[in-house]
Amino acid sequence: MYGEVHAVDGISFDVAPGEVFGLLGHNGAGKTTTIRMLTGRTRPTGGSARIAGFDIVSQRTEIKPIINLVFEEQNLYDRLTGRDNLEVFADLYGAPRKRVDELLETVNLVDAAKRRVKTYSTGMKQRLLIARALINQPRLLFLDEPTRGLDPASARDLRNLVQRLSAGGTTVFLTTHYMEEADELCDRVAFLSAGKIVALDTPQELKLQYGNRSAVVLLRDRTEHTLSLDQSDDARDLADWMNAGKVLTIHSQEGSLEDVFIALAGAPERKQAES
Predict the structure, then answer these.
(1) What are phi and psi of 205, to 5 degrees?
(2) In sequence order, what are the residues at sequence separation of 6 or more whose Cβ sits closer than 8 angstroms to the Cβ of residue 42?
(3) E strands, 161-207, where?
(4) What is the C-alpha separation between 62 and 53, in angstroms, rounded?
(5) For the packed helices 82-93 and 122-133, what is the interaxial angle rounded to 10 degrees?
(6) pLDDT at 159 over 50
(7) For labelling alongside 241, which of 102, 204, 220, 231 has CA 20 to 30 A away?
(8) Distance between CA atoms of residues 242 and 156, nearest Å
(9) Cβ atoms of 165 and 20 closer than 8 Å
(10) Contact assessment for residue 140 and residue 67, using Cβ atoms and an 8 Å cutoff
(11) How many Cβ atoms are within 10 Å of 265's Cβ, its own excluded?
């Protein structure tokens, strides 16, 4: 709590080893506060949570070696080289110097390793931050808005990196405003609204459960028809067209994760007006 505000209000969830889990919500929904509590940056005022069996309050010392995080702020040493930045943290964690070489390769910064970080692009800095967070080979990596402010190519590179980390067994807990990104990366997502989880499932199941199931049918006479997959009359029309050989193309119109999110969590303006 912050004064009378319940920043996170009785949420409950679990994350499986190797899973990419997304926590999605508007600004102020409680995403960053959740990460700060789980990583020991903020002490919870109630409830409990465990990471790898360790209590996040009483066993923080046991948790620290097995987690790491990348917050939205790019807090790097700009006057040092990329390699120097990693070597500083390798020394802090007691990691061998060969780990630095491995990580520069992992995030594709070998050619830029001797350049000062102040010359890096935003995308390069973000990849260096992830490399730094991997220095201790964490079992669980927290990423808070990892692609915010990145150009499309840099964002794609970072998403590919997250997928490789997950495939290698690293559990990833991320927050993002980008629903397409969550749909692509996450095994499961939780929608957070006003500190409460309003939905939690796989992106596919959420879209099937709450999305608009429809199809756009283009006939040979070049007329286009939008049909509901849940209406018997529309199903009969489609069957009749198919039997008559009139259908040229059919395109499903599955509801997007963004549509589902807005339906369940509402628009930010409405939430602010209600609070």
Answers:
(1) -65, -35
(2) 33, 36
(3) 171-176, 188-193, 196-201
(4) 10
(5) 20
(6) yes
(7) 204
(8) 39
(9) no
(10) yes
(11) 22
Q: How many residues does the chain have?
A: 275
Q: Residues 60-67: what's their mean pLDDT?
A: 95
Q: What is the mean pLDDT of the chain?
A: 90
Tell me the CB-side half-sphere exposure of residue 93, using CA atoms within 13 A: 23
Burial environment of residue 165 by CB neighbours within 10 A (0 to 12, 13 to 18, 19 or more): buried
Burial (Cβ within 10 Å: 0-12, 13-18, ≥19) of residue 61: exposed
**Amino acid (one-letter) located at 174:** L
* Cα–Cα distance measured from residue 185 to residue 203, given in angstroms and rounded to the nearest whole number: 10
Contact 233, 225 (CB under 8 A): no
CA–CA dist 21, 24 (Å, integer) = 10
pLDDT tens across 138-152, in order? 999 999 999 988 899
Q: What is the pLDDT of residue 272?
A: 40
Is the pLDDT at 275 greater than 70, yes or no? Answer: no
> Is the pLDDT score of 20 beyond 50?
yes
Give the C-alpha separation, 123 to 154, whole Å: 5
- Tokens 């309050």, residue? 57
- The rounded distance, in Å, linking the Cα atoms of 207 and 189 is 12
% of the chain with per-residue pLDDT over 90? 71
Tokens representing 115 are 């350049």
Q: Which residue has the tokens 């990693």?
A: 86
Residues 6+ positions from 124 with CB-CB distance below 8 Å: 82, 109, 112, 154
